[in-house]
Automatic annotation (TrEMBL):
UniProt organism field: Chaetomidium leptoderma
GO cellular component: nucleus
Domain F-box residues, every copy: 69-115
Protein name as annotated: Uncharacterized protein
GO MF annotation, one: cis-regulatory region sequence-specific DNA binding
Length: 510
């Protein structure tokens, strides 16, 4: 599921000079990469305008376009880019014609994306996508997209997004260390799941083969059946016809991701084991305790569609729920860490309500992937079309589509994770998300429903909750100043609650 609203994410761009096929400097990456950097460099084409990383300036004998900026030379590139955000489309276009350096700045597509979103066009669900936000806002045909030779523009701020939008995620998914491989089974029984697997990720290769959508859904079939259905894709609501144009032809570093929770209603799908159903929840995960909430349960299922390189940056799923994610078309690379791990490049506030990480998936892969996969708690795997992956409650995950794809995901509360969910709803009430606005006490609502329908289970859940709190108090000496999120360090400090399971990984902090 997408980053829940309780985990506000802020971004920081890690800037490093990097090579370009036509230039002598080589890639500089964090963590002494064990990837083959030369193959990464050769997979990145030269910038279409000829823009180069800043470091290349020191190897160039020719003129530097920045010298012709006049008084604006005093401003660093980051600040120049920020200034441009104040210009309207006409001013931005004209300003770009004043010199080559400013041309390179003014065609950066992210600025045009903001302009698009704030314009009337940004409110439309059907329009012609022209391959870039700039071309779409300015109604430019391919021949009207002017090309200026910017080979004397040296800037990491301008070059880095181009690298990130051309990084092939496949480069990072090769050679998964055997110890990191997410377990794969054909299928699991509910007993096996409840006894041994509810706290670990795994992939099932046969479990969803009987779903009708596994055979019938492709991006093409969607286009023929649902072209006019309007889906939510991050900040926009677009018809599938429009989204598929975008999906096939965009250069965004973080492509807009179609992530819609009302899809079943919009597409008039039947879900569940009934005549004519499109798909149903797999048996192996057992009862979903949030079903006791009926219509009052928080948002729980999503249709996900996106192009290669789209995906989800590091997050934990909301309300300490577990999830399954079924790939219908395409393939997804998952990299996951248990709840208390410190994930390289991901910084969490003391109360876990804010997550700061590099802006894009590509940026994280470039800077932190090599270091991350060396950690003993790292789990990685590729979920192919027709397979389903289990996301245990509280696990960090980053997911990237390796090709255009369609997936279905659903969040749930298995019996074995009830204590964790009760603890979250009670102790992190300010981070609870996905409920309708008028539900102010999710913990009280859930406990009340469990008391009516599953009193024995509630008792066990409350016992787990109390035990968790007791263990926590023992560790931190009941002292608030200790902070509420000790991080598991890669150097080996491990912190587990071990509720009875011999091989318990870790659990959430109450
Ligand atoms: O398919 C994806 O991008 C991942 C979605 C996700 O985070 C999930 O299913 O929990
Ligand atoms: Fe998720």
């Amino acid at each position: 599921m997408l980053l829940p609203s309780h985990q506000r994410q802020t971004g920081s761009r890690a800037l490093k000079g990097e090579g370009d096929r036509s230039q002598p400097l080589s890639h500089s990456k964090a963590g002494n990469s064990n990837h083959d950097d030369s193959s990464l460099d050769s997979s990145i084409p030269s910038h279409p305008l000829g823009i180069k990383p800043l470091g290349n300036k020191y190897f160039s004998s020719g003129e530097d376009a920045r010298m012709l900026l006049g008084t604006l030379q005093v401003l660093p590139d980051e600040m120049l880019m920020q200034l441009l955000e104040y210009l309207d489309p006409r001013a931005l276009r004209l300003f770009g014609y004043t010199c080559k350096f400013l041309f390179a700045c003014c065609v950066v597509d992210d600025i045009w994306k903001t302009i698009f979103l704030e314009s009337d066009l940004g409110k439309k669900s059907c329009f012609e996508w022209r391959g870039s936000w700039r071309a779409t806002v300015l109604h430019l045909s391919p021949e009207q997209n002017i090309r200026v030779d910017c080979s004397n523009v040296f800037s990491d701020v301008l070059h880095r997004p181009f690298v990130c939008s051309h990084v092939s995620p496949r480069h990072y998914t090769k050679n998964i260390p055997a110890a990191n491989e997410i377990a794969r089974f054909e299928d699991l029984s509910y007993d096996e799941f409840a006894e041994s697997w509810s706290k670990k990720p795994f992939i099932l290769t046969e479990c969803i083969q009987s779903w009708p959508v596994t055979k019938s859904w492709t991006v093409e079939s969607f286009l023929s059946q649902y072209a006019d259905v309007v889906f939510r894709a991050e900040a926009v609501d677009w018809s599938f016809a429009t989204y598929s144009q975008y999906m096939r032809n965009n250069q965004d570093e973080s492509p807009l991701y179609l992530f819609d929770r009302k899809f079943a209603e919009k597409m008039t799908l039947k879900v569940g084991k009934e005549e004519g159903a499109a798909y149903w929840k797999p048996d192996c995960f057992g009862p979903d305790l949030f079903e006791l909430l009926g219509a009052e349960r928080p948002a729980h299922r999503w249709l996900i569609i996106g192009p290669e390189r789209s995906g989800s940056t590091f997050h934990k799923d909301p309300n300490a729920t577990s999830a399954w994610n079924a790939v219908i078309q395409g393939a997804k690379y998952w990299i996951m860490f248990p709840p208390l791990a410190s994930v390289p490049g991901v910084f969490v506030s003391r109360d876990s309500s804010e997550v700061t990480s590099p802006l894009s998936i590509a940026e994280w892969l470039l800077e932190f992937h090599a270091e991350a996969r060396k950690l003993p708690e790292c789990r990685e795997g590729i979920c192919q079309a027709g397979e389903i992956l289990h996301v245990p409650s509280g696990w960090w995950h980053l997911v990237v589509n390796l090709e255009d794809g369609i997936a279905l995901t659903q969040n749930f509360v298995p019996e074995s994770r009830l204590g964790g969910v009760l603890s979250f709803l009670k102790d992190k009430a300010d981070q609870v998300s996905g409920f309708e606005r008028d539900i102010s006490d999710a913990y009280g609502l859930f406990v009340g429903r469990l008391r009516e329908e599953r009193p024995g289970l509630l008792e066990e859940g409350l016992r787990q909750l109390a035990e968790k709190k007791r263990r926590w108090d023992t560790v931190v000496g009941d002292d608030d100043s200790a902070g509420d999120q000790p991080q598991k360090k890669s150097t080996g400090f491990s912190f587990g609650f071990g509720f009875g399971d011999e091989d318990e990984d870790e659990d959430e902090i109450p």
